[in-house]
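Sorry to interrupt, but I need a hand with the structure work. Could you write out one complete protein record for me, on any chain you like? Just paste the record in under my message, thanks.

. . .
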Amino acid sequence: MHTVTTFVLLASLLTSTLAFPSTSTAHKGRSFKAPLRRRVIERRDNGLAQAVALPQDYITKWEVPVLLGGQQVSLCVDTGSGTLWVYGPSANNPDGRSTYDPSQSSTSIGQDGQTFNASYGPGFGASGSVSSDSVNIGGAIVPSMPIGVADTVGDFMLDGAFAATDGILGIAFKYGNAIRPDQSPTYVEMVLPYLDQPVFAVDFREDNSGSFGLGAVDDTAYTGQLINVPVDNGTDGSWTVDGVSFGVGDSSFTQQMLFDTGGETMGVDPSVAAAYWGQVSGAVDSSAAQDGSGWNFPCGTQLPDFGVIFNGATVTIPNALIAGSPGSNPQMCSANLVGMAGRGMVGAPFWLSQYVVFNQADPSISFAPKA
């Protein structure tokens, strides 16, 4: 038996039917909650995922049930983007995802002259027309908001990180909205008048007992004290924390971190990732460019925990959440901690270990270990 250390960084396919929300009208001064479902997607061996160097063979997304004009869909919860879009009836849709058809809704209003073009990287994106309709999540209803109705969806959306989802619930800020020429506020921004507090909360859990909360903090969902950090939503409208400082050996540096619920991995500066994996015997840089953007390690290895310190308080990511799945070589597993130059990313390992609250009115993020 060997001692497991904690690596500390310094920083200031489930297919069961979901219970969809009721159609009762939302009232001002309330809080709401909707279930989150974990969808595990197996990466298909057709070259698409490999072309964009996805590090995992199994990709996890969390979906929330949504009623669009009374039509049921499941949308990926994504704080890394600002557009609500869904597959339309004419979209390329080989897997038979649920769609939203504005012509079948008595409350839909077409937005002539408005289009959307949401891009998440080469091959990852969707575009189409825009219709306004009611949006209901857990009973929290926006009576009318612009919805992107996709008629074109990128290949990697069909067969990559967002495979099998019906669309995306982008809940960053308006500045990140992809509708043009008139950008739209996000769902959360539009539902604020109906809420007790200007907050939403995510509680991702692997057993599907998690939730997406609106208007309140669930004090039973976490332990200890919430850590609060300010957000710089800047001009790109993202949930970004500035000035995250890291210390590795005798060196230190800073890195912005994007809090992205659609993200698979913890993406940190490549030198930080290299320092972490340098502690793991047999770990190798598996990235095509050998730039630290992907790592493999011998399956079954007991990894170090991963620690991040915000405002003097340590957040520990358990080692089990750093380990990914076996790849083409069954002896080697992928990693959920990778190198990412420039702005880093807070991804799935963080969401699975923390209860997280986003404050929309006073942009900030609070989090604490799950209860």
The chain is about 10% helix and 45% strand. Residues 231 and 241 are 5 Å apart (CA to CA). Residues 2-6, 11-27, 44-57 have pLDDT under 50 and may be disordered.
